[in-house]
Amino acid sequence: MRPLDEKETSAVFEKLFKFVGNNLKNVVENPSHEGPDANPGRYCFRLHKNKIFYASESLVKRATNVARPSLVSLGTCIGKYTHGGSFHLTVQALNLLAAYAKHKVWLKPQSEMSFLYGNHVLKSAVDRLTENIAPGDGVVVFSISDVPLGFGVAAKSTQDCRKLDPNGIVVLHQADVGEYLRMEDEL
Amino acid sequence: MEMEDEKRSNFDVDLGNLMAFDSYHTFPSETPLSREELMKQCLLKGTHLVQAIADALFTLPSTQDVDGPLVTLPPPLTKLPRAKHLPKPKPPTKWEAFAKKKGIQKRKKDKIVYDEQSGTWKRRFGYDRANDEDAVPIIEAKPTDDPKDDPFAKRKENKKKRIEKQEKNRLQNLKEAAKFGALPSHVQLAATALPITGTQAAPKKVTKDELGNVAGIAATATASGGKFDKKLAGEKPQQHQGKYRKFLPVVEGSGIGSQEREQTEKILNKIISKNSHDILNVEKAVRMHNVKKEKKRRSEKGKASPTDRKLKTQKKSFKKGSFKKGKANGK
């Protein structure tokens, strides 16, 4: 477990910025009230075995007591570094992203399952979506009852989506809560 | 006293080399002397010899100086052998060969020459020399001159060319001399290191540090990267190549460290400022503007004929009622 270096930090922040925009400041400076410490600490990012964890200070401090090989996880794993060296967000980051999301898409109830099986979001599945989405922006996918289901990358801007045919892809799938079942051993 | 005089006459003194020796001295050969005895005898003999030189020096005519009497030594009598062999004669340079063929004689020139421009006498060569072409501030143009040519630049270029030519000739002569082995060793090295063709710059010498590291570089060919190789005497441990990675401490003080905080702050600001142009969404602004314009136009249209409208609506209501009635009846 170690803090991120400058290059890694900017990779992680840039990825998060796509989803949360200027809320990134809140994500980084989020006060944590975990642990018995009197003054609230902050959440910080730590790298451990190629995975990026978002954990409170007090937790990190306590985790230093565990030897590196035996430490499995701490806090929330928000992403991982692939073998090729690029950073990917994982499903566990969903709660964090959903709380601060800038761009959102709500799905129709009948097409939720399709998304949870790992398919892209089609125009016909979209109930409504926030304004000002540009292609390439990070989008968090919600069910109609505001339950976060996953996230992805916008394929089309909001304007273009209006004119899109029903089978056109609106959001490219990146992660969904179905992965908790499908890829249980990998997470 | 008599005996000393006799001794002195026996010594050969060469004042030019400040040297004296006793050519009649013999060591007893039948009973070899001990080391101490021999040393004592040598010292004694040496003292006598030095005394002989001193005596001879003081007999010479001297002049008084601040430091004492000053004596001019006679030319040396003994011929000493040379430490090094005589230098070989250099082969004639190209010019020397040419001059000999044409019968050109070397003539001494005056160091000082009359300078026509300033009307003074100046040195022939060097700084502030006489009749210096480069110091002419104005060059008169001839009618045949091309106005595009810069005569000053041309003059500079010509001089550069002359210098280059001379340097080339000098190196050529040096190389020729090196073939004969007529150069002192240091000059020879410099001359033979010059490339025959191509660039004139001499090849760069490998520094001592670089040479020391060659062994280290070679050692990386082994599987252990030279870690378990047998070290030669005086061989330095190989240098670590590349940088060591350095990370911030995992926990500093009560949690997140000031350095880490600073780093995240820096990157956060960088990212936010990089995307700050997103604050103005042009598309949305245009849309808003259009909508507003539309609304304004609509409201203006309505305001333009308020009385007309009122009448119309009244009329309409009347009509509508009648129409509806009619329709209903029809149904």
Describe the protein.
The complex is a heterodimer of chains A (187) and B (331). Chain A has 187 residues and is an alpha+beta fold. Chain A has seven helices and twelve strands. Chain A has helices spanning 6-20, 24-28, 57-63, 94-100, 112-116, 158-163, 179-182, and strands at 2-3, 31-32, 41-48, 51-56, 76-81, 87-89, 104-107, 121-122, 126-129, 138-142, 148-154, 169-176. In chain A, the strands form two sheets. In chain A, strands 1, 2, 3, 4, 5 and 6 form a six-stranded antiparallel beta sheet that branches. The two termini of chain A are 18 Å apart. The mean pLDDT of chain A is 88. Residues 308-331 of chain B have low confidence and may be disordered. Chain B is mainly alpha-helical. In chain B, the strands form three sheets. Chain B has a two-stranded antiparallel ribbon with strand order 1-2. Chain B is flat, with a radius of gyration of 52 Å. Chain A binds chain B through residues 1-3, 5-6, 9-10, 13-14, 17, 21-22, 24-25, 28, 37, 41-42, 44-46, 57-58, 60-61, 64, 131-132, 157, 159, and chain B through 245, 247-251, 254-257, 260, 263-264, 267-268, 270-272, 275, 278, 281, 283-284.
Counting DSSP H or I runs of 4 or more residues, the number of helices of chain B is: 9
Biggest sheet of chain B: strands, sense, closure?
2 strands, antiparallel
Helicity range of chain B: 40-55%
| Portion in beta strands of chain B | 5-15%
Assembly of the depicted chains: heterodimer
> Quick one: how many beta strands of chain B?
6
Distance between the termini of chain A: 18 Å
Instruction: Output the structural class of chain B.
Output: mainly alpha
Q: How large is the radius of gyration of chain B?
A: 52 Å
Strands in their spatial order, largest beta sheet of chain B: 1-2
Could you give the order of the helices and strands of chain A?
A: EHHEEEHEEHEHEEEEHEH
Keywords (chain A): Nucleus, Ribosome biogenesis, RNA-binding
Function (chain A): Required for proper 27S pre-rRNA processing and 60S ribosome subunit assembly.
Organism (chain A): Psophocarpus tetragonolobus
Subcellular location (chain A): Nucleus, Nucleolus
